[in-house]
Amino acid sequence: MTAPTQPTDQQADQQADQQAMIEIDGKRRYHEPAVDVDEAGLEAFREVVRGRRSVRRFTDRPIPPEVLQECLDLAMLAPNSSGLQPWEFYVVRTPETKRALVTACLGQLAASTAAELIVCVARTDRIRPHAAQMLREWPLADRNPLVTRYYRLIPWHYAPGPLDLAGRVKRLAYGAVGLVRPMPRGPFTRADLRLWAAKSTALACENLVLALRAHGFDSCMMEGFDEARVARLLDLDAAAVPIMVIGAGERAPDGVFWPQVRFDRDQFVHEV
Q: Which residues on neighbouring strands pair with residue 240, listed in sequence order?
């Protein structure tokens, strides 16, 4: 009797896809149930969010490598525009580079005492290659034609052209059509793309610092640094924008300099 053959990885993935499909209104749809969070899990989440502070001074205790790697993995699970993941994370380990980075961070204690320094970078030049990669690595066996068209059009839609000329023309055209129906209003120019990439990268940064806190470590998101020096230090090109430098480590007893201040929620939360 011939032994049964084992399915290939691709066949196994396709079988998993089919198992995840359900029928809704006569159509096959992908189904991923929400993860149940009990009261204990909710309270743990509250503690992580409330316990995260901007720590300015750290102890000498190192962060275990496996902990830092998991935190970075969790950072990259952050929501991001069209799944294009326009970010990079530089974990600065070389002593000479680390000293130079501390100097570029204006000598802040949050940098000079940190066990780890992580430069979070937004990329504005990954739209075309990541859109193509998304189509190559699409997770379902059957890809909707609208998905294919969407990812093929994104590079054109976002391309600013030389001196932002194409972007400015698109801004005018979309604005004219927008007078009669809703239209996307960007990103069109290089400045728009910088903001677009920064939004997603900042979400990943928040995931990173919350993950560190969940592991018992703390962080400080630093925006006070010399962006040009950091870019030269890491040999970044013009399409790479350092968004923030995160210092991470174990909180020193005097690591938090003052109680947290939050203004009245009525200043910020509105129901319309």
A: 123
